[in-house]
Task: structure prediction
Amino acid sequence: MIKNIKDDVCYLTFDIFKDDPIVAVHSTRIGGVSEGHFEAMNLGFSRGDQRDHVLENYRRFTRCLDVPIEKLVLSSQYHHNTILDVNESHHGMGIFIERDYHDVDGLITDKVGLPLVTFYADCVPIYYYDPKRHVAGMTHAGWRGTASGIVKDMIEKMVKDGSDVKDIKAAIGPAVCKACYEVTGEVIDAMTYDFSEDYYDYYKEKDRYHIDLKGINKEILMMCGVDEKHIEVTDLCTKCHPELFFSHRRHGNDRGTQIGLMMLR
Ligand SMILES: [Zn+2]
Result:
């Protein structure tokens, strides 16, 4: 990943999309106006922060990316696998007007200039781009979305819509790392496919597992036929880097929220 600073706002971009005509970024907590445990670039409206502070954060964030704030389309995440085809009718939904959709953890569009937004604080952000069809999408995957394969659903949807899987590029953004992510056997049992034992460690004395959600999502992308050369995985962990990220595992409910944003130019 590349760390960018513009007008005091720090945001992350991906090497793999460097030459593509798209915006594909992940926010950090640096450069906003929120205070207390929301300090500073909190982009979540639902956690108790002042609305005018969050809106100012969106203004600063979109201005430095040259993205039209009035057109933002925000997901409505419930750890399920629903993917919404986004078009002009969704302009401003989730930020300026009420959404006409709910329970949406994935967004996709072929419309130029239409920014998609998904939310994070440890879960895995996955960015998709087909340069041939000029289509961009994002999915949010916590352990439930990882276990039920939202990545697979997105790739299958893109292929059904006309993409050749060989063309698809994908990037996995900052998320909690294996060392920081301890779970019960319920999570392992929920996985609906076989994945390599490299992605989890079992600690017998506490009867807990540590799992690598980023690694598992990468493996699913490859199982779906995405070329490994077309996948970037950042090693940045949201819990290991409190100077950069809000983390649910580190901060609990007293925290702000990062976003992933994608837009076709
Ligand atoms: Zn970590």
In short: Residues 177, 179-180, 237, 239-240 surround zinc ion (CB under 6 Å). The two ends are 20 Å apart (CA to CA). The first strand starts at residue 2 and ends at 6. Residues 2-176+227-264 form a domain with the CNF1/YfiH-like putative cysteine hydrolases fold (CATH 3.60.140.10).
